[in-house]
Amino acid sequence: MKFLTRLRSLLRNRSGVAMTEFALGAPFLLTAGLWGAEEANYALVNMKVSQIAEHIADNGSRVGDTSTLQNRKIYESDINDVIYGAQVQGGKLNLYGHGRVIISSLEVEQGSDNQYIHWQRCRGTKNYAPQYGSEGENLGTTGMGPAGEQVLAQTGDAVIFVEVSYTYQPLVSAQFLGSLDITSIASFTVRDNRDLSEIYQRDAGSPDPVQTCSVYNGDAKIGTNGSFT
């Protein structure tokens, strides 16, 4: 009888119902919360990469000597400053450790109406090739950019075109995302009259490093004497 009484009492007991429901529902709630956090962080990183691309293109279009007597010259040190500035802006993204930046100068070929990439500078360890042309490439009349959205340089002028590719670093798991690759492009027309003949060195005896696209370097460092590596 005592056994039956206890059994009836146990059947009427509802004190563990909430705990059981929580135990069954918690994995789904936790998964949804982590998924949302991952997606939100991915969106923020995507926006930051886009802003970095815009700032690099904007800064690249402004650099150079200030002179009222001749067109502005640009130097390798100017481009290095732009590249280092993007690294600082990227902060904890580790932009060059997980991504790659490609800066191109789109110009009009002398003696024709064809667009061509006069020079190109790159930084970053990611294995990512330029998607819209390489240094010295003649692009005909199509310019740079996605099909139907190409930008064109005007005769005697230049457009700074930037590609940034970054591999997203998940907070929780890559399983919440379809792809970890984030790519952004931006372009700005050079602000002032620029000397388009070449990129100069400030000191030929101690030249600044050239960020060639055949090299895959990570974060840049500024030495105590101002040197860039």
Question: Can you offer a commentary on this structure?
Answer:
The structure is a single chain. The protein has one domain (26-189). 33% of the residues lie in helices and 18% in strands. It has helices at 2-12, 17-62, 76-90, 95-98; strands at residues 99-108, 115-123, 138-140, 158-167, 181-189. Strand 1 and strand 2 form a beta hairpin.
Low-confidence stretches: none
Largest sheet at a glance? 5 strands, antiparallel
Residues in β-strands, percent: 15-25%
What spatial form do the alpha-carbon principal axes imply?
A: elongated
**Integer tally of domains:** 1
N-to-C span: 87 Å
Q: Based on DSSP secondary structure assignment, what is the total number of beta strands?
A: 5
Q: Helix coverage percent of residues?
A: 25-40%
Task: Return the structural class.
Answer: alpha+beta
Number of helices: 4
**How are helices and strands ordered from N to C?**
HHHHEEEEE
Radius of gyration: 27 Å
Mean pLDDT: 89
Strand arrangement within the widest β-sheet reads 3-2-1-4-5
